[in-house]
Each structure stands twice: as C-alpha cells, then as structure tokens.
Amino acid sequence: MDVLKTSLKEIRDGIRGKKFSSAEVTKAYLNQIEKWNGKLNAYITVNDQAVAAAAKADELIAKGEGGALAGVPIAIKDMFCTKGMRTTAGSKILENFVPPYSATVVERLEKAGMVSLGKTNQDEFAMGSSSETSAFGVGRNPWNLDYVPGGSSGGSAAAVAAGMAPASLGTDTGGSIRQPASFCGIVGIKPTYGRVSRYGIVAFASSLDQAGPMTKTVADAALVLEAMSGRDPRDSTTSAQPVPQWEQKISKNLKGLKVGLPKEYFSDRLQPETRAAVDRAIEVVKKAGAETVEVSLPLTEMAVPIYYLVCTSEASSNLARYDGVRFGFRADFSKKPAEDLAEFYCRTRGEGFGGEVKRRIILGTYALSSGYYDAYYKKACQVRRLLRQQFLDAFKQCDVMMSPVTTSPAFKLFERISDPLEMYLNDIYTTSANLVGIPGISVPAGFSGNKLPIGVQILASHFNEQALFNVGSVIEEGLAIKELPHGLQ
Ligand code: GLN
What we know:
The protein is α/β, with parallel strands linked by helices and 489 residues long. The chain contains 16 helices and 11 strands. The longest helix has 21 residues, at 374-394.
C-alpha cells in the first residue's frame, strides 16, 4: 500500500477485503510520520497507542463487528478534546492539558471504528492562516518546504498531502479547512453550521466554528462527514436534519445545475494563475451539463471586517476561561508571589498566550466594551444579517456558487506574519460561508507556475452538502492531481 496514493475508501475496502490489516495500514502511516514529521511539523502529538488501537479494530473486524470505517486511521487537529490525550489548541496555555473527555465528533469517528494517529499542528487557538502562530513551531507545506501549509488547520492538511494520514479532522471558523486544503492540494469541507457537533472542540468563535474532514478525494470527505454529522444533545446548535448517505448518492451528471459566479469574487485582486485554475474548473463543470450565471454579492468587501469583529468579540469571551485557576498553564509564582488576583491573571495570560491571540482578545474586548459595542459589534451583527440575505437571494438564481478559495496560492514562510492586515485579507473568499452558515468545499484545480496547488471553492445553500460533493467529484475527475508533493523528494 502506497501511503501517498491510497484513498481512505481504498483503505476501508482493503481492510474489509482482508488485503491488509488495520495494524499494517496504521504502521505504514506511522512510518511516514516518523520519516517526515521532523521536516513538516504536521503533528504535535503522535498517538503511541495507535498500533494497539488498530490491533483491537482488527479483532473486532475478525468477529464481523466494527463500524462503517473500521480500522481506518485518521489524524485529529489539536482543537478537538481527546480523552487521555494531550490537547493543546496549538497554545502554550494548554500545553499540558489532558482532557477528561472526547469531543462528540471524535467519539463518533471512534464508534465508526477509526484509529487516531495523533494530534495535528495548527495556529494557536485556530487564529491564523499559515500555521505560523503555533506555540509548537511553524508547519510546512509538503509541496515546497519554504512555503506555509495554510492555516489554521495546516498540520491536518500537510499530514494528508504528505501521506502521514489518509484523512484528518480540521476546524473552520473563517476558512481554516478550505484554505489549507487548497494550499496543500487536498479536499476540505466545512459543513453547514449545525451539521456537526461543536461539543468538546476548543471554542474560538462559537457562532462560526464548524468541524469537517480533510481528505485526498471528494468521496472520502463524504464518508468521513457522514460518520461525524448529526444532532448532538450536548450541542444545542446542532440540527436534527437527517444525515444523507452523501457518498453513495454522488452524481456526476450536472445537467440543469445552475452555477452562480459571484462577480465580486473575480475582481482585480485575484491573481491570474488562480483565476485560470478556477476558470478551468468552471469549464469542466459546464462540460458535465451545468450552466453558469453571474450573481452579485455586493457586501463581499464587508466580509473580512465583519468577520474580524465577530470572531474577535466571541474569542475574547471564550478565552476568558484560561485564567490559570481552573486548568491549563499558570505562571510561576514561586519566586515572586502575585500581589493580587489581577496580577495573577495578567502574568498567567501574559505569559501563556501568544501575540496573535492577545491581539484578538484586545480587539474583541474593545469591540464589546460599552460605548463601542453599538458602533462595532452590533453593527457587525447587523451587516452579517444583510450578507446572509444577499446569499439567500443569490441562491434563488443558482444551486451552487464557484469561486477561488484565496487570491493566490501558498505564500512563503515568514513573508506575511508581521503584517496582520495582509494576513486577514487572505480570508476574503472564505469567511462569508461561516458568517452565513452555508457549507463550502475546496477541491484541487491545478498548480501555479512554481508548482504549488490551487483549489477551487464551491458553496451551496444550507444543508445542501450533496451538491458540493457532486460538483466536487466532477472537478476532481476532470482535473485530477497526478503529481506527488515535490517537497518530499
Ligand atoms: N484565517 C482565519 C483567522 O485567522 C480563519 C481561522 C479559522 O477558520 N479558524 O481567523
């Protein structure tokens, strides 16, 4: 079995058909991790129980038991609580946090029989677009080690691209699944808000956060999403909508499908190579029977400002729990005790959080403070509502929309990290899906001149993930990536 080429579905079938055992497959991925993690820094923690878990899965399979994805390994972003396994959120403040319970989605994947390979690197608290804000060192892109893998789920993307996992879990608050998937040449889907439980996922911005799979193929993403979706009594924002069997229902006949092209997404800021890749994907979709129609989302230029007000406001509240009292890091007070509680908090949080997280807590606290709340947070919520209406109106004219994921492919490490505004503008095409709650997928569509992958984004209306899988499969078939990551040679 070649870890760089084999899909999750092939692994599932191979284990079922006794071509190989879960233990053998798991060892193959662990070998690849051993070989490449020193360079890519895709994993923060490797599961030293993975082979034992795989052997257990093999026993169950032999008895005719085991779930839909029995014995298939998966990597998990370090935002997901994993019982008994360190969960850092890429931060120093949770450096030694070992959760007493697992996130619902982790439980569901385990119930489906999946084997955890470990926890992947990410931007601290998922705040970033490059995996450079991690307290555990920067992540790297398997296509070129001098470039970022994207973020915040950069470790999850790099792990799949580099054959260090057949699939991974990511979280997407403003693009953190779709953007790294695009930068690393893999598939990543952010489902509809409420499709997937957020219980046990370290909270960044609760009204935007959603979890989703990152995989080599569209069908693989459908399979993993099926296993993790659905109502969870422990997260009241989850929907009771039934979870379809997406993978089985994938249809590559797009006859009559209307594809909206939001004109604001094809402005001058889009780099020509990226535009060419998206255009190629549009041609492939048209050949499969779809028609295109221009749509307009005039509030697009407001998406980044609204997003950065909403996400920082929610983050400032969510991150208040890291106070050094209840759990996580506490500053060393053995030599110089704190004078009072305020100093205790200040030193703990001052030493425990990184620069980007502090910036966001300060921004969010400012936007929520009395006197500024109406001008910033409330206004952002109002414009968010209008943006949602624009999307709902546009979806009256089309079934899906196609767009770039980012204006350009992966950028060089350390190139943008000192310019937060430039970094934030990178999120122009992805944040709207989170603000509006609709699902979005990124599918590989080609390469730049310097051999870096470029993805195309497909968006659909609430709970219409099926359309994303259908269109995504057509693009995948038409523009399949045959090359292997150049950085691994
Ligand atoms: N890049 C965005 C940010 O920095 C998105 C992050 C995410 O989706 N978690 O907030």
